[in-house]
Specification:
The chain is α+β, with helices and mostly antiparallel strands. It has two domains: 275 residues, no CATH class; 70 residues, no CATH class. Helices cover 36% and strands 22% of the residues. Helix 4 packs across helix 13, helix 10 packs across helix 12 and helix 11 runs antiparallel to helix 12. The N terminus is likely disordered.
Length: 367
């Protein structure tokens, strides 16, 4: 089994977004769109997602669903009688079909544009797509990792506790769904409680209860993507809700073009900021033994083995064991003793490698 650091890690890219294009910049091809009006929150400017999905014009093909609607928005600082109309499209990376795992990038956004035009719902220029404002942006990053169940357990163990509804961690460990998520995509507390999800993409593609995803996988990915690229694929997703949310990260322009050109460093910093709102920076220290006892090597070895089985890497276990020892010499001896036991009996066994993988992922997520 390889260590995760040796395996390919994709860049952070856009998975889905909602775009708003001035109606004056488009030509309506499908006249039925004119009856698809959606609601706008007058205070935040956000669109009610539930109402949008119910009232939008939907184009469905082989598990790909793209939704179109028209919004009328009051113009800021002008009488409520004055308003402007916008085309709203809910766009996702399934439009890339066989290149789905790339996510939406500046190098393949032309494919997205062509697919939209081919729906024959509306017609507009490519530049109008790039220069329009986007909201509800889901970013994704995929990584190939084995023993994902250990990652879920570890993330849950370091999740910040909360008694509030729709806060805290929710885990799913099922044949059709495995992962952990924080908050809700529709949350209005996105600045303090943004949406974050880490889940097994391979299970989602092949065994999910999501019929559309299974149909999409069978049509576009089954024959073109190796099982090894899917079976252990883990996806991290996070949502940046709107212009106000982007401003929190000093991103002032929310045009599609600008968001497509964000650096990997910027997107990773956003991810780690969001992860930090939900996860403790340090794992909870494990209480190994009472100070008034001197454990035998066998007991120490058993405890170390138990920690590895629970996804805690030796480096963290060692830190926990020697943390409370204030005497420098004794701490050095204890460290040497534990390291020798680990090296001789536990290093590079299956549980040790799984624990290292989990530790690597958590460190990457939190920085």
């Amino acid at each position: 089994m390889s260590n995760i650091s040796e395996l390919p890690i994709d860049s952070i890219e856009i998975d889905s977004f909602k775009i708003r294009i001035p109606i004056s910049n488009i030509k309506i091809v499908d006249e039925s769109l004119r009856g698809k009006w959606v609601l706008v929150n007058e205070v935040s400017g956000d669109i009610d997602n539930k109402v949008f999905k119910e009232n939008s014009l939907s184009k469905n093909e082989n598990g790909i669903k793209i939704k179109y609607g028209i919004e009328r928005q009051n113009l800021t600082g002008i009488s409520s009688i004055a308003s402007e109309e916008f085309l709203i499209i809910l766009i996702n990376s399934k439009l890339l079909k066989g290149r789905y795992f790339e996510g939406i990038t500046k190098d393949n956004i032309d494919i997205v544009y062509r697919e939209l035009i081919n729906h024959k719902v509306v017609s507009f220029a490519f530049d109008d797509l790039l220069n329009s404002e986007i909201t509800d942006v889901d970013f994704k990053r995929d990584v190939i990792i084995k023993s994902f169940d250990n990652v879920v357990k570890t993330l849950f163990s370091i999740a910040k506790a909360s008694k509030k509804k729709d806060e805290g961690a929710k885990i799913y460990v099922q044949k059709s769904n495995m992962g952990i998520e924080f908050s809700d995509r529709a949350t209005q507390s996105y600045l303090s409680n943004p949406f974050l999800k880490v889940y097994h993409k391979g299970i989602h593609c092949k065994k999910s209860d999501d019929k559309d995803m299974r149909e999409f996988y069978t049509t576009y990915l089954f024959d073109s993507v190796e099982d090894s690229e899917i079976d252990n694929r883990v996806r991290t997703e996070y949502t940046v809700k709107n212009k106000k949310h982007f401003r929190q990260y000093n991103i002032l322009s929310t045009t599609l073009s600008n968001i497509l050109n964000l650096t990997q460093e910027k997107k990773l910093n956003i991810l780690r900021n969001i992860a930090g709102k939900h996860l403790l920076k340090k794992q909870v220290r494990v209480r190994m033994i009472k100070e008034d006892l001197t454990p035998s090597d066998k007991i120490i070895l058993g405890l170390l083995d138990m920690l590895l089985q629970n996804g805690i890497a030796f480096s963290r276990a060692l830190e926990s064991c020697i943390f409370s020892e204030s005497d420098r010499v004794k701490r050095s001896r204890l460290k040497s003793k534990l390291t020798n036991l680990y090296s001789k009996y536990l290093e590079n066994n299956d549980d040790d490698i799984k624990a290292k993988n989990t530790d690597f992922f958590v460190n990457w997520l939190l920085g």
